Amino acid sequence: DEKPGFAGSLEWRTPVRGLRVGTSYSRWNFDMDALFQIPAMPVMPGASGVSGVPSVSGMPAMPAMPATFEAGPLEFTTISAEYVRGDLTLAAEGCQIKVKGDTVVAPGTPFATSEPYDQKYTGGYVRADYRFSKLLEGALGYGHTKAEGQIDDDANDVFISARLDVTKNVILKLEQHFMDGSMDVLANENLSGIDRTMQVFLVKATVFF
Questions:
Q1: Statement: residue 132 has pLDDT above 50
Q2: Which of 104, 127, 75, 91 is nearest to 19 (CA)?
């Protein structure tokens, strides 16, 4: 159930050759009905559970229950800048996301529970791209995100990438991330524990027809 919202953006191509800056803002509200269920998980060592029912520390899996997700207002604000000089491109962007709302599980029943939330995410990145040849383009950058509210954490990301224009129809991209921070890493999907430092290597192939 969507409600009226609005969005707008501005871009200024400055008198400085190759430099442009921009900003954007959007705000909206919406409601959503869903089924809420704690996913079935294997019994952890030392746990005692009901026979045939997946459990964690002896707690059986919860049955699916209806839930209502009321979000609003959601506000997205960005500001960005880009400078291009020959084969070099420098870019930076900052973003702030504000989310308010309420999650109601089992509405209209004696077991109904309400969980209001007020969350803010602030982050941004800087990066430099350089075209070495028709075949190769490289990039280096840094990103940071901070969460405040029910989730209170931060994350840092240093990345390096290489883009290979194999042909005019095939592009291959390799990307290495060195990350510090556990934001958006779910504990129930990492039962052996969460390490704040991690590395991620990505390969992407794009084919144009």
A1: yes
A2: 91
